[in-house]
Backbone:
């Protein structure tokens, strides 16, 4: 990590949640890992970089009332600070997304510095946070590329099911190309197994297969399938506010500790 013995501020660890496969738990992880990190005293910014705006909804942000969102930051050069919203958790803020971000994927194609917009926008706030978690859409388009260019780490949520490994070599190929061309610091800090049910043989086998594929990078913490995790967004709350005792809340708390410990190890 960037030391601060001379009094200078450390920069946030920027973690991009990526997987072009839909419904694997990217947004659920952005919301609940973010909340869990804030609850152990870290300053967290969640950036919703997905037109679906699921992380935004997950924090109960009313999209119609927003003055600025990630779209204005990426496409209209609005200062990131103007788009930051508070949440119910003191140490956690979010840059929300709305459906107009869908246009950015197309509009960006013809723009200069189209891959580095998010990285550049984050420069002004990286010293104010310990973690920036970027939620990305289920595609390998320019919004995901922007997340990977801005990040130091890619975190890949993977659902423990039969097709889990499909597409992962394509994804790691993209991560490698972004590292070579645009962002030498980027690495896969972890593969996170989500919706895990250790009672089924298939899930156990998929976990073993993933561990073979990513021997060094698989998180020790798995996120179990837990209905409270899927209910919490409709109340606009992270699971640790909605049902702190649930297995989902406990799993994300354990993941937050594991991620925080990585600071001295793999990172
Ligand atoms: N551990 C879990 N247990 C039960 N349900 C979960 C769990 N994780 C996520 N879900 C539910 O599964 C669905 C997909 O999760 P989520 O939206 O986080 O995936 P995603 O990867 O962000 O999807 P997309 O690619 O569409 O953005 C959601 O309805 C969510 O509430
Ligand atoms: Mg999502």
Residues:
């Amino acid at each position: 990590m960037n030391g601060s013995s001379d009094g200078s501020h450390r920069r946030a660890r920027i973690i991009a949640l990526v997987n072009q496969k839909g419904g694997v738990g990217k947004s659920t992880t952005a919301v609940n890992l973010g909340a869990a990190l804030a609850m152990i005293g870290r300053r967290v910014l969640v950036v919703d970089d997905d037109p679906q705006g699921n992380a935004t909804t997950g924090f109960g942000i009313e999209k119609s009332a927003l003055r600025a969102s990630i779209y204005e930051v990426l496409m209209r050069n609005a200062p990131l600070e103007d788009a930051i919203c508070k949440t119910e958790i003191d140490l956690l803020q979010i840059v929300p997304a709305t459906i107009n971000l869908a246009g950015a994927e197309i509009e960006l194609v013809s723009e200069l510095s189209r891959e580095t917009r998010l990285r550049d926008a984050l420069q002004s706030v990286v010293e104010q946070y310990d973690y920036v978690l970027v939620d990305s859409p289920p595609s390998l388009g320019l919004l995901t590329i922007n997340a990977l260019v801005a990040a130091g780490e890619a975190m890949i949520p993977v659902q423990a099911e039969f097709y889990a490994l499909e597409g992962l070599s394509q994804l790691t190929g993209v991560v490698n190309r972004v590292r070579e061309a645009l962002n030498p610091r980027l690495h896969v800090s972890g593969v996170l197994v989500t919706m895990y049910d250790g009672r089924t043989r298939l899930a156990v086998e998929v976990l073993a297969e993933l561990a073979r594929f990513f021997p060094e990078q698989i998180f020790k913490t798995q996120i179990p399938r837990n209905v409270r995790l899927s209910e919490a967004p409709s109340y606009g709350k992270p699971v640790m506010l909605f049902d702190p005792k649930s297995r989902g809340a406990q799993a994300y708390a354990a993941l937050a500790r594991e991620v925080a410990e990585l600071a001295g190890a793999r990172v």
In short: Confidence is low (pLDDT under 50) at residues 1-7. Strands lie at 13-17, 44-48, 85-86, 92-95, 131-135, 153-159, 187-194.
